[in-house]
Amino acid sequence: MNVATATTRQLESYVKGQWVTGKGDGTLLTDAGTGEPVAVISSSGLDFAGALAYGREKGGSALRAMSFHERALMLKSIALMLNEARDDFYAESYRTGATKTDSMIDIDGGIGTFFVYASKGRRELPNTRVLLDGDVEPLSKDQSFSAQHILTPLTGVAIHINAFNFPCWGMLEKLAPTLLAGMPAIVKPASQTAYLTEMMVRRIIDSGILPEGALQLVAGSAGDMLDHVTGQDVVTFTGSASTGRMLRTHKAIVDNSTRFSMEADSLNSSILGADAGPGTPEFDLFVKEVAREMTAKAGQKCTAIRRAFVPRGQVDAVIEALRARLGKTAVGLPAEEGTRMGALASQDQRAEVRARIAELAADGEIVAGDPDNPVLASGDAQAGAFLNPVLLHCADPHGAQHVHDVEAFGPVATVMPYDDAEEAVALARKGKGSLAASVFTNDPEIAERIVIGMAPFHGRILIGNRDSAKSSTGHGSPMPGLVHGGPGRAGGGEELGGIRGVKHFMQRTAVQGTPRLLAPVTGRWMEGADAGDTSVHPFRKSLAELKIGDQVVTAPREVTLADIEHFAEFTGDTFYAHMDEDAAKANPFFDGRVAHGYLIVSFAAGMFVDPAPGPVLANYGVDNLRFLTPVYPGDVLKVRLTAKEINPRATADHGEVRWDAQVTNQDGDVVAQYDVLTMVAKQWPLPAEG
Ligand code: NDP
C-alpha cells in the first residue's frame, strides 16, 4: 500500500484571499498509472460560511461593476495565460491516467471554452451590465405602459461541484459562463484528480487577472458549505446520480429554492441506420466512433456511447469490426509513446467499473476484453488502474434492464439489435434521458425519424455521415456553443449553449412601467419614451456626446411613379406589383402599383443621412426590417431616426449604435420600421494615428 511521505505535496484550498491547507492527515491521492503518491488532500477546518460571504461581497461586487465586454476580455486574458502554461498541465495530467490526446480534451477543451465565451461575450452581448431579454411588450394602446424583460447577475456565489474525469474542462466550462454573467464562483473539484485543478486555479489566481473573490477553490470535501447557501447562490453538480439526488434535496437548497443544476449518469446511445451496411462510409464511421468513445479518457466521459443499437442483420459485422479495432488499442502508461488508452482514475474506480460490467454481463455476454486480466503494452496491472476495453452483446434489449440502467463509467459498451427505426428510438428512450446520442445514416428519412423520436430524451444529437466526417466534432464532444445536459436520468440540467449558459447565472425580471422610466432602466430607448436632443443631427455626435433618445425627424419627401420606374429599371426589380397597375390591383394586398420596399429604405437613408465626414464610420446592417403599409405614387414619407442603444467597444476607438428608424406616410401610418446598425467613433475628429 502506498503511503504519504513527508515530501508528499499537500493540496491547498484558496478561500478568503488565502491559500490554506486543511487540518488532519487528509486523504492520499495516487497516480492512476503507477499507484505512486501524488498529493494529500483535506478541507477539514475550512471556514465555508466565510468563503461564501467573501465571494458574494468581494468577488460579486467587483464582477458586477464590470460590463459584459470587460468580463469577456478578462476571460480572454485568462485563456491566453493558461495556454502559455499548457505544458505544465499536460505533465501533471498524466497522473490522472489521461493520455496526451485525453489531456487535449480536458486542457485545450477547457481553455477553448474560455476563448469561445470571450469572443461570444463581445460579439453577442452588449457592452452593458444589464441584458435585455426579448422585445418590448406594449401593454397599453397609447404607449404609456410597456414592459421589458431584463437579466441581472445573481448576487450570490456559484458553487461548482465537479467530477473527477475532467479536472480542467469540468471547471472551465462552468466558470466561463459564470464569470461572464458577473457571478463569482467556488470550485470544488472531485478529490481524486484535484491536484490538476489546484494547479490551474493557482495559475489563474497568481495571474491577478480576476478580481479578488471572483474565484475560490475547495480542495477536499465540501464540508458544511451547502448549509450556508441562499436563494441568490447557484449550485451545479456533475457526478453520480446518488450524490446528485442527495445534494438536490439538501435542506438549505430546498428551503431557499437555490438554483441547482445537475449532470449525472447518462446511458448515451448511438444508432447505426438501416441503410448503413458494411462497406458504406457510415458503417465505418459508426464503428470508429463507438471505439473512440469507449477508449477516449478510458471511457470515463459522461457523453460516451454506452449502448450501440444496430440493425439485427448487422450485429455480427459490427461486433467483428469493433473487436478488431479495440484489439489494436494499446493500453498502458499514459505518458508512453505507443499508448492509445491510459488508466482509469483510481483503483476504486476500476473496482467499481468491474462490478458494473458484471451486472451488464447478466444481460448478455462479453465479446471483447477480459475485465479481470488486463493485457498491457506498458505498466503494472496491479499498481495501475488499467482495464482493456470491454464490449458486450445483449441479444434481447427489451427483456434486459441493466443495460439501460447501469452506467459502467469506463471503456465499456454494449451492442444490441433492433428491427426498425421506431424500435431503435424506443430502445434509446429506455435510457430515461441522456446527454448525447448519435445516428449514423446517409438517409434523410431515417435521420428525421430517429432524431425527432430521440430529441425529447436528449440534450444533443449528432447525425454522422460521409459529408460531415472530416469536420464532425464527434458524438462525445460537448461544444461551448451547444447545450450540454439532458433530461431525466442525465440530471435535467443544462450547461453551455453559448449565451444561454450565461443566463443560468442571472435573474430574469419583467419590468413594467411607462417608457420614459423604463428606457433608463433597460439602457435602450423605446417607443413612447421622450426624445432627447433634436437640435443637432445625431450623426454629428461622437459616442462621447451621443445619448440614447437623441433624434432627427427628416423633411418630407414625395414618392412619384417616375421614382418607382427609375428604381425598377436601375435595379432590375420589375416585379409586377411595381409595374403593372391591373395586376397589382388584383393582388389582395394592394390598390395599385406600389413602391418597392427597398426603395423606401433607400429613400429613408437619403433623408436621414448627414453626409459630411463625421463620427459615424459605417453602416453594418439593419435588424428587424418590416414593411407595414404599402406606399403608392404620391405618398409623402418622413423618417424619424432615434439613437436606441449605444455600445462602446472596450478595446477600440469606436462602438456600435443601434438606431430606431421609423418611416411614416402623410397620414402618420408607419410604412417601415427597422433598426439601423452603425459604427460610431468614440471621439471626433479621430485621434491622430501613431
Ligand atoms: P461522486 O458523485 O461521488 O462525486 C462527484 C462530486 O461530488 C465530487 O466533487 C465529490 O467530491 C462531490 N461530493 C461527493 N459527496 C458530496 C457531498 N456529500 N457533498 C458535496 N459534494 C459531494 O462521483 P464520483 O466522482 O466519485 O464518480 C462516481 C460515479 O459517478 C462514476 O463512477 C460515474 O458512474 C459517475 N459519474 C458520472 C459523470 C457524468 O457526468 N455522467 C461524471 C463523473 C462521474 P469528492 O470527490 O471530494 O468526494
Q: What does this protein structure show overall?
A:
The protein is of the alpha/beta class and 690 residues long. It is built from 20 helices and 28 strands. The strands form seven sheets. A seven-stranded mixed sheet has the order 15-16-17-14-13-18-19, with helices on both faces. Helix 14 (444-454) links the parallel strand 18 and strand 19. Helix 9 (281-295) packs across helix 10 and helix 13 packs parallel to helix 14. The longest helix is centred in the first third of the chain and has 25 residues, at 100-124. The N and C termini lie far apart (66 Å). The structure holds NADPH dihydro-nicotinamide-adenine-dinucleotide phosphate. NADPH dihydro-nicotinamide-adenine-dinucleotide phosphate (NDP) binds next to helix 7.
Considering the chains and any ligands shown, give keywords for the structure:
7-stranded mixed beta sheet, 690 residues
Question: Can you summarize this structure?
Answer:
The protein is 32% helix and 23% strand.
